[in-house]
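Recall the central idea of this unit: under ordinary conditions, the amino acid sequence of a chain determines the structure it adopts. In this exercise we apply that idea directly, starting from the sequence alone.
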Amino acid sequence: MNEDEVEGVAIANLIGMDERSVVGWVYRWNTGALAVMWDVNGPQRVSKCLPDLSDAEKREIDFGGLTQIPRRDSWQDQS
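Accordingly, the structure predicted from this sequence is:
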């Protein structure tokens, strides 16, 4: 990584509720920060990350919140 530019590397896959689909990725930036990037379908409920992250890393990306994202069909009910 070039220290003059902000760059990120994917460090984990976010796995959907079907336990097999990759719905997003966790990136570690050269600044040390972590961030979530979603696939083209946007935020979805997550069941786990592979490889597993440390408890501190999970807190940084609010993994608990990622496991509570409403189902898409429930969003339509709110319209």
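The radius of gyration is 14 Å.
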